[in-house]
Amino acid sequence: xxxxxxxxxxxxxxxxxxxxxxxxxxxxxxxxxxxxxxxxxxxxxxxxxxxxxxxxxxxxxxxxxxxxxxxxxxxxxxxxxxxxxxxxxxxxxxxxxxxxxxxxxxxxxxxxxxxxxxxxxxxxxxxxxxxxxxxxxxxxxxxxxxxxxxxxxxxxxxxxxxxxxxxxxxxxxxxxxxxxxxxxxxxxxxxxxxxxxxxxxxxxxxxxxxxxxxxxxxxxxxxxxxxxxxxxxxxxxxxxxxxxxxxxxxxxxxxxxxxxxxxxxxxxxxxxxxxxxxxxxxxxxxxxxxxxxxxxxxxxxxxxxxxxxxxxxxxxxxxxxxxxxxxxxxxxxxxxxxxxxxxxxxxxxxxxxxxxxxxxxxxxxxxxxxxxxxxxxxxxxxxxxxxxxxxxxxxxxxxxxxxxxxxxxxxxxxxxxxxxxxxxxx
Amino acid sequence: xxxxxxxxxxxxxxxxxxxxxxxxxxxxxxxxxxxxxxxxxxxxxxxxxxxxxxxxxxxxxxxxxxxxxxxxxxxxxxxxxxxxxxxxxxxxxxxxxxxxxxxxxxxxxxxxxxxxxxxxxxxxxxxxxxxxxxxxxxxxxxxxxxxxxxxxxxxxxxxxxxxxxxxxxxxxxxxxxxxxxxxxxxxxxxxxxxxxxxxxxxxxxxxxxxxxxxxxxxxxxxxxxxxxxxxxxxxxxxxxxxxxxxxxxxxxxxxxxxxxxxxxxxxxxxxxxxxxxxxxxxxxxxxxxxxxxxxxxxxxxxxxxxxxxxxxxxxxxxxxxxxxxxxxxxxxxxxxxxxxxxxxxxxxxxxxxxxxxxxxxxxxxxxxxxxxxxxxxxxxxxxxxxxxxxxxxxxxxxxxxxxxxxxxxxxxxxxxxxxxxxxxxx
Lengths: 426, 426
What we know:
Radius of gyration of chain A: 21 Å
Shape of chain A: globular
Oligomer: homodimer
Strand content of chain A: 15-25%
Helix content of chain A: 25-40%
Number of strands of chain A: 19
Largest interface: A-B, 38 and 38 residues
Largest sheet of chain A: 7 strands, mixed
Structural class of chain A: alpha+beta
Order of helices and strands of chain A: HHEEHEHEEEEEEHEHEEHEEEEEEEH
């Protein structure tokens, strides 16, 4: 697989923030080490970042990351080493791992992600097999990924408190790559095997607002460490509940929230001399896959939505109704390559940044969501690892990617806090 | 730095052993994870391997490895990640590291190794400075490595039980890249800072025979796991003490030991249909740098040595007298590139294999020691990481390097046992 060069994507104005991050690298790494002494690292995760040149912030944190197939294959050894560390912490005696992917078996790019994950854990020394929650998978079924890799999906068998496959395969660890949007299946409840990530990391329980509340906390600490305005790395957000897009219930409150947030952003834009129009993103608080999302620049845009827009907003993955949304400050994407908008996604396993890629999309604007249904982005893997080059310019690819890795790890740490706060056994 | 291709170096006969190692990868990785639950991993290390096609074995284990500069720079991120893990275990609160190199400041390739190590720990997020035990370094001294990298060596200052630099730099961790052949300096004794590797890992205390005794033990277990003859991965060895090469004291006993070992090897060669002549290596039990080493094919060769040979054998690094030797089964090197003999060296940090290179030397035979004074080897870094390719031939580079990594980790584990057994505080 050829790895494209990224230089043309790195056109944003030089970030004072990046310089500070590079200069403070020893303090930052020390701070992360201290944090991880007190919080359990999520097993894996990916973070969608936006870089507007004046602001670098996470807009979404995925605890069941797809897209491992988009990472630079040259750096997969980093993922393998991180996987060894992750397994070692959770279950050092593990010999075998059952990977449970999403149910959409027709997305051959997603299947390539599953194959990559299976490969990584195989390289880390585990016997890996794939078990499916999909009721259509009633017998071992071979599927072919976009790149031709073959996968064998097998039906899950619950025996007592253990999850097995039909031939008796009895995994030590069950790894979810399924975000449980449809709820927590009985099959997965009260397992005696190690189940990762925990069930409450799934969208049946998770809320974006929980995450960004935790992220607020993380940013407070980190911004103090770097003596920066936390706003530079943290988008404003607010929650709106009891919405019903069909009956227009809660519309006014939503409009008020949007209005207030736009006002707050305007103050910050004025403070930093930013001339762009502020915008906010409204999205389902429990949801993913870019469904139920709108980008608005004024409160009027959320009032009196037409039927099509209301339908679009009201339902997310697995047909779930949306009654809670997060209203999030929009962060412009000012990275581009060949005039196409590019949004970075950073991947982590255990506490380690293992790589990233850009979602490159030609047909979309800089204030739109790039992770949307039907969206065919071109992945552009990072050409170098997320390690700083202290002799390089603050904005050279290694330093920019290092800064991305730092912000992504802040989101990872926020997820650790979020999972602690929502742990039903705590 | 261009990375040469290695295909021509991989000409040895296909190893049944390599196939077994690849097939048993999940069991092997599980076994290592279990072992590391009970033993502390040495901080770092490198292992000299020999591959004769019929036998793959370590011949030396270095706990103060030089040569990091010879690793493929593309895989340095693996070293950085492993360094983070290593530091995290030993001293998660660490902010700064003092690296103490060897005293030979004129070896510019060694200086490049020191620069690479400093770079790795810098990338891992530590403030790194260099302190010297060399009495000639009385003030901060800039040295230039072979590749032009600049290093600042500074005199050490002992204050109470802490090691510092003159300007007050007070490191959290002191990392030795000096093997203490000259004894343990008072400066390093009873430090309250974390000192790595521990003092008893230095050649003032260490003995090759201690290591290979521990390696015997490791090989017993591992060979049972793989159902192989331990001899395939373990060279015979014996110790001879109370030698005085100058007065020829102990010569007869040495000859007898050599004779017995050659007889044992002959039995094994017959069992496996190997037609080569057995040979043994006689080397100082406490020593390194390829000094005090001879390769012999009959007992007569160690009797009545001429003055030159006796002088060569009697003194190792730092002018120490040799009175104990290890007599070790010689393992042929059947790897070559462009008709030059190639000996693999594998590097590890924490429990991770982070890469390796070949010492390539045109002027030496397949039964000679390749790490000798005045020897100008050409380093040939491994072109891929030491991870298996299960779809590949057992002998393809990734699989061969994986097998090398496995054997190297056995030696690393043996060092862990060795350091436990020789720990003065245990």
